[in-house]
């Protein structure tokens, strides 16, 4: 059986062994193919990576992505005792799988009265590294901030003295009826917030009949999340095309078999954005003498948990991407990461739905917010709204933001971070986030003089702030 000292000898890119769940893996040939980048793996070369690995990966990742030759067998029980300082903070706090529940909650769910409170709560309650991973945006995080502020720049044009009774939030999204026009956007690593991970989002979504658009980078498996569905619940699946397309193809086929009824292909992440919050955490740990070296060219290994995403398949063009995904399913497809009207028009041409998103400001700093892209489409190619369902996300913090998006032509409005933060309180947190949003949307529609989602239109909003910007 391999021992602690055996593993320690393989702590470099040239020979990289790690321990995960008591087994030794030789990742030397895998390091440069790792979808989360080489740096994170090299940081744990020669050490036990279980605590860092678990919350970020579905339970079957090792079986799906590694060949049997990578598994060198079990490690002797005494292997790799790290000092508390060397361990990742989640491991220091106790059980490896969850970060959030190991520390007493400082910010109670009962104190949460709006969606922004979930972020404040998470900043108190979550492990700082986990919070940084969720919160991070690219570069100076200006796009992340702008996503939020851009909804505020849209003003309402309310109508009064209209009889308003029950406000009906229900709508259909890609052919399926839901109780609300907002949904849980695909966002991974849910076990950083709660040990049960994203299945709790599926359960809360079932309770409220809202859409959970499940993420393929989730920390629960596709099967677990399918099994968590209520009998009458519909969920959709999000895809990254990985360099090993065969793996993604299998994933899509299984998603169809497992009853996912709609798909999104995410196309805005062929490289990872430079998320400096993550990098700073990496650098802080990196300075310990145990960590890998800064190389002569000034690069560092171990630069944060999402710093250098490697191989997402980046050779697709429009015809090949759509033909590829269409060869697996006739179900509705959205292309996630549309950021200009020309690409929205291409979605229309190829019979798919445009999902206006800049990945929550995590990718290209300077990218437009979904508001700006909605306005562009209205100006240059309004037929997109007739032929496609336009989906949006990014910076939605209020019911009023949802209503503004719908008025500008969106069919469905996603929220990413908010539901991850809410998940730190378990299913109850996600339930509360949905309740808060439903109440805020309901109030905003009533005050606007509208009873039904389909009655919202551009006459209810004033976008002159954006026209002024365009003229300058
Ligand atoms: C040991 C074998 C490992 C395998 C087979 C593996 C596999 C994967 C795969 C397949 C993904 C893409 C997500 C998915 O489709 O499931 C991923 C993402 C990722 N992995 Fe690993 N991984 C390994 C080790 C590690 C380790 C030790 C870390 C240390 C923290 C790590 C951190 C990450 C991160 C940060 C992401 C990206 C998450 C994101 O940006 O959303 N991985 N990994
Ligand atoms: C921590 C985190 C992980 C994410 N993971 C994914 C993912 O795996 N796939 C994807 O298409 N989008 C992913 N996103 C982007 C979200 O789907 C969504 O576009 C974004 O969060 C919306 O912005 P918001 O967080 O301001 O609501 C992620 C976002 C965050 C914050």
From TrEMBL:
Q: Where is the composition biased (Polar residues)?
A: 80-90
What segment(s) does the record annotate as region Disordered? 73-98
Give the coiled coil ranges: none
**Residues in domain FMN hydroxy acid dehydrogenase?**
107-466
Q: Gene3D superfamilies from the xrefs?
A: Aldolase class I, Cytochrome b5-like heme/steroid binding domain
Instruction: Specify the Cytochrome b5 heme-binding domain's residue ranges.
Output: 1-76
Q: Which UniProt keywords apply?
A: Heme, Iron, Metal-binding, Oxidoreductase
The record's section on InterPro entries has: Aldolase_TIM, Cyt_B5-like_heme/steroid-bd, Cyt_B5-like_heme/steroid_sf, Cyt_B5_heme-BS, FMN-dep_DH, FMN_HAD, FMN_hydac_DH_AS, L-MDH/L-LDH_FMN-bd
Q: Do you know which CDD domains this protein is assigned to?
A: FCB2_FMN
Provide the cofactor list for this protein.
FMN
Q: Name one GO molecular function term.
A: metal ion binding
Which family, according to the similarity comment?
Belongs to the cytochrome b5 family.
- In its UniProt entry, what is this protein called? Uncharacterized protein
Provenance organism = Coleophoma cylindrospora
Lineage at the top is: Eukaryota, Fungi, Dikarya, Ascomycota, Pezizomycotina
């Amino acid at each position: 059986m391999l021992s602690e000292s055996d593993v320690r000898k393989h702590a470099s890119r040239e020979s990289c062994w790690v321990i995960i769940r008591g087994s030794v893996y030789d990742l030397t040939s895998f390091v440069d193919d790792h979808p989360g980048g080489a740096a994170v793996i090299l940081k744990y070369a020669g050490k036990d990576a279980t605590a860092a690995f678990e919350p970020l990966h579905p339970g079957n990742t090792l079986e799906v992505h590694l060949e049997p030759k990578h598994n060198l067998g079990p490690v002797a029980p005494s292997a790799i005792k790290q000092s508390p300082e060397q361990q990742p903070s989640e491991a220091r706090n106790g059980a490896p799988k969850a970060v959030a529940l190991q520390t007493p909650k400082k910010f109670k769910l009962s104190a949460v009265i709006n969606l922004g409170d979930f972020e404040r709560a998470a900043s108190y309650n979550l492990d700082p590294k986990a919070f940084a991973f969720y919160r991070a945006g690219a570069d100076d995080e200006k796009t992340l901030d702008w996503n939020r502020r851009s909804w505020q720049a849209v003003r309402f044009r309310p109508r009064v003295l209209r009889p308003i009774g029950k406000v009906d939030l229900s709508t259909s999204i890609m052919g399926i009826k839901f109780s609300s026009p907002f949904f849980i956007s695909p966002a991974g690593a849910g076990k950083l917030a709660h040990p049960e991970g994203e299945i709790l989002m599926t359960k809360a979504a079932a309770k409220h009949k809202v859409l959970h658009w499940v993420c393929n980078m989730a920390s629960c498996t596709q099967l677990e999340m399918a099994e968590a569905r209520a009998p009458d619940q519909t969920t959709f699946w999000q895809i990254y095309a990985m360099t090993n397309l065969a793996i993604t193809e299998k994933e899509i086929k299984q998603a169809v078999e497992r009853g996912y009824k709609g798909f999104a292909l995410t196309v805005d992440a062929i490289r990872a954005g430079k998320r400096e919050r993550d990098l700073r955490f990496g650098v802080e740990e990196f300075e310990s003498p145990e960590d890998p070296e800064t190389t002569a060219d000034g690069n560092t290994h171990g630069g944060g948990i999402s710093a250098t995403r490697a191989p997402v398949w980046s050779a697709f063009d429009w015809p090949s991407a759509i033909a590829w995904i269409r060869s697996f399913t006739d179900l509705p497809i959205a292309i996630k990461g549309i950021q200009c009207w020309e690409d929205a028009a291409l979605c229309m041409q190829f019979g798919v739905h445009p999902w206006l998103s800049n990945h929550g400001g995590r990718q290209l700093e300077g990218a437009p917010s979904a508001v700006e892209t909605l306005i562009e489409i209205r100006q240059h190619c309004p037929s997109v709204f007739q032929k496609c369902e336009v989906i949006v996300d990014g910076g939605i913090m209020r019911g009023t933001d949802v209503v503004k998006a719908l008025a500008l032509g969106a069919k469905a409005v996603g929220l990413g971070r908010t539901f991850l933060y809410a998940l730190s309180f378990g299913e109850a947190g996600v339930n509360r986030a949905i309740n808060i949003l439903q109440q805020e949307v309901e109030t905003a529609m009533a005050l606007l003089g509208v009873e039904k989602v389909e009655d919202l239109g551009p006459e209810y909003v004033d976008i002159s702030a954006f026209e002024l910007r365009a003229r300058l």
